[in-house]
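Example record for the data management plan.
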Amino acid sequence: MEQNTATKKLVQVEDILIAYRHLKEIVAHTPLQKNERLSEKYDCNVYLKREDLQHVRSFKLRGAYYSMKLLGKKMENGVVCASAGNHAQGVAFACRQLGVHGKIFVPATTPGQKVKQIEMFGREYIEIILAGDSFDDAFNEAVACANSEGRSFIHPFDDEKVIAGQGTVAVEVMNDCEEPIDYILGSIGGGGLMSGLGTYIKSVSPATQVIGVEPAGAASMKASIENNRVFPLNKIETFVDGAAVKCVGSKTYEICQELLDDIVVVPEGKVCTSILQLYNEHAIVAEPAGALPIAALDFVKDEIKGKTVVCVISGGNNDISRMQEIKERSLLHEGLLHYFIVNFPQRAGALREFLDNVLGPKDDITRFEYTKKHNKESGPALVGIELKDKNDYARLIESMERKGFSYLELNKDNQLFNLLV
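Corresponding structural encoding:
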């Protein structure tokens, strides 16, 4: 990354150590666990920093509490924040601990599980306002509230005290790891976590490669660094809600531009695969943003062989009601789930022939519905087919064509896919 000496004045390693002393009795010192399964898979030593086990199941408590603690009397009129969910939980926790009233703006798309957690941590000390469809919508309304009501605005990432608080994750990592760390990977939303990690790690271990990870649908830090300025995205995919930010902070951009060695961009479907693998193989419940660093390992697998790697599982606030969507996104990304509009020949037994002679013995129909309200059996049908092996796709297509079933592949038509699936 391009060097910028001005960033050195924003947050110093001493700031992070002061934050660490303030937070020692407030936050959980989360475990750094060596993961044997991932270590074997990638032929290296993989350690997981389990911030999903934090009091609010996210690292965000660190920056939120520390920045509020230092405000003192400036919080007399209360505080306000905007968040996709995790920062809000940190602010809610701090409001109750410090006896301060807070207004918390979250997007209407925030998973219900996160909203309930915010309520639980803040109780009578907070008011939750659903605002817009994205973090940026909530952010704009929160700023307006701060200005009109004289409340202190607790920024989720673009604030030196917040960055210093998030940097205490790195203090624990470096204290707990008994061997030199070659790589550390963490997710980027607004950039607060990686700004704090980068500041501390590069100060005490300059050789460690600091890698940020963004979702492909909201890679705002990558775009900013490529354009050599804070670069707002016109549109984002909000699935990885904890990292879905249209515009990173000016302070976090400056720090990340100087200190990050690389940014890996990961497709949302790959993130879903990692969520399922963490749950099924490691008994870890990770939210999409928390799974980003694990998903990124496949993209750096050649570089990390034989190295010591730390992945920060930044959050575990995943709503169980999203699991079906997560599974479907994973299957689509892995090439195992395909949707078609199939025109069945107008002859008796056509459907039975499709089941017996087109589908393979391990193929499974996950969805079937006729697209016509009347004379259904003579019309086209929406068919979802799950394969056990993505290499069976060519065989499936060949079988449909050989048996005379005309079809339209919805996976290759985004407009029709979004309309019908």
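Summary line stored alongside the record: Residues 3 and 275 are 35 Å apart (CA to CA).
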